[in-house]
């Protein structure tokens, strides 16, 4: 099996909910073909693919070139954060692999006209936190803003410090990072989610 991505094993999150520190891959770029020059199938992660936690992944919108790779994850669920209908070829892939789709339609608006619906974020978090839905992939269009906000709110539930939350968000958003997204994550009240233990690392302290 060939994987068209080399994960940087030295890049790791410093703030985890559990004792094991998991590797976080660098944002990936999509391949243009499913096969290499020898005719071997490529296993290509979607744009901005990375592991978030045990059984939780994030990415940009997966295309047909990414389906072989997604099959290796054994996904049970996908959390889709865009309002547009899921493409037919993606739906066929989900049905063939018995993957349940949870759609939370958040408009991809740009600053200064940004309205992130907290109630939808909370409903999406309930799906993400339910281990019965794992393994699970969170994605929007580019895997930057909507996905970044949802993951950032998950990190608040896990009691990450804001510096670590913003660092992770900016790693994927890069030059497209939005102050409004970071303000939303900062003000998000995670106190209603009480079943997640605090991160034992020093970076959870404020």
Describe the structure.
The chain is of the alpha/beta class. It has one domain (47-192): Protein-Tyrosine Phosphatase, Chain A (Alpha-Beta Complex). It has six helices and seven strands. Helix 4 (145-157) packs antiparallel against helix 5 (162-173) and helix 4 packs parallel to helix 6. The chain starts with a strand and ends in a 19-residue tail after the last helix. This is diphosphoinositol-polyphosphate diphosphatase. Belongs to the protein-tyrosine phosphatase family. Atypical dual-specificity phosphatase Siw14-like subfamily.
Outline:
The protein has six helices and seven strands, in the order ββββαβαβαβααα. It has helices at residues 67-72, 88-96, 118-129, 145-157, 162-173, 179-187; strands at 2-3, 42-43, 50-53, 56-59, 77-80, 100-103, 136-139.
Based on the model shown, name its key terms.
206 residues, alpha/beta, Protein-Tyrosine Phosphatase, Chain A, 5-stranded mixed beta sheet, two-stranded parallel ribbon, 6 helices, globular, disordered C terminus
Q: What is the string of SSEs from the N terminus onward?
A: EEEEHEHEHEHHH
Taken as a percent bin, the fraction of beta residues is: 5-15%
CATH superfamily: Protein tyrosine phosphatase superfamily
CATH class wording: Alpha Beta
Protein name: diphosphoinositol-polyphosphate diphosphatase
Domain Tyrosine-protein phosphatase: 48-199
EC number: 3.6.1.52
InterPro entries: PFA-DSPs, Prot-tyrosine_phosphatase-like, Siw14-like, Tyr_Pase_AS, TYR_PHOSPHATASE_DUAL_dom
């Amino acid at each position: 099996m060939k994987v068209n991505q080399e994960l940087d094993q030295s890049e790791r999150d410093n703030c985890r909910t559990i004792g094991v520190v998991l590797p976080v891959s660098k944002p990936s770029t999509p391949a243009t073909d499913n096969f290499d020059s020898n005719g071997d199938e490529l296993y290509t992660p979607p744009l901005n693919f990375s592991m978030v936690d045990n059984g939780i992944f994030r990415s940009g919108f997966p295309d047909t070139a990414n389906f072989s790779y997604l099959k290796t994850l054994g996904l049970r669920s996908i959390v889709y954060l865009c309002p547009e209908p899921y493409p037919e070829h993606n739906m066929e892939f989900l049905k063939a692999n018995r993957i349940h789709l949870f759609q939370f339609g958040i408009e991809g608006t740009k600053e200064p006209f940004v309205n992130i619906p907290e109630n939808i974020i909370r409903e999406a978090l309930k799906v993400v936190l339910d281990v019965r839905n794992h393994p699970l992939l969170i994605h929007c269009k580019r895997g930057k803003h909507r996905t970044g906000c949802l993951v950032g709110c998950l990190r608040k539930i896990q009691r990450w410090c804001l510096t670590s939350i913003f660092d992770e968000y900016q790693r994927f958003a890069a030059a497209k990072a939005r102050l409004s997204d970071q303000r939303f994550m900062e003000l998000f009240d995670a106190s209603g989610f009480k079943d997640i233990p605090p991160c034992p690392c020093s970076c959870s302290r404020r």
